[in-house]
Design goal:
197 residues, alpha+beta, Lipocalin, two-stranded antiparallel ribbon, 13 strands, TTHA0802/YceI-like_sf, Lipid/polyisoprenoid-bd_YceI
Amino acid sequence: MKTYTTYSILFGLFFLGFSLQQGLAQTFTLDNSQSTMKVEGTSNLHDWEIDVEALRGTLEVEQNGESITFKKLSLKIEAESLKSGKRAMDKNTFKALDTDEHQYLTYTLKKVLDVQQISASTYTVKTSGSLSIAGTTQTVTIPFQMQVEKESVSLTGSHDLQMTAYNIEPPTALFGTITTGDTVKINFETTFINQTL
């Protein structure tokens, strides 16, 4: 009877420890080398595209069976890492973003509005968060698709914004003869690596 009780206690402790491990929050760090973010816009001459070269971020989630809970999501972009491959255009971009005063663009998750599981490891997520650009912060709704693996989480989506909503005057060139549209689209494919394994 004593042996049975001892084994029962040990098994119970093992099972409890396993369950707690499954429910622990997992922390992921954005891998810049595996992630891409682009800003797309228009002008009266041609469409344009800018790559984000320096992107940092942290994601914290807790998974219990098929349910998943977001604890944290934050992104930080170096403003002068937005590069078009054209020096004059980059100079106008940095001026519009006032990079001397505002060196970073940031996003912080505030609330998860909806999560839908579409396969064993894929979810569609709708979030509300704070996006800060050039010293102005707005609350934005961003949907994305999330792919969950043991060692990584990938987020893929896009967001349209108006530059004037962030008190940014759309850049111009050649004495105002080239003008850019107010609306830009941010496309992202970001990969976060598990730091708790």
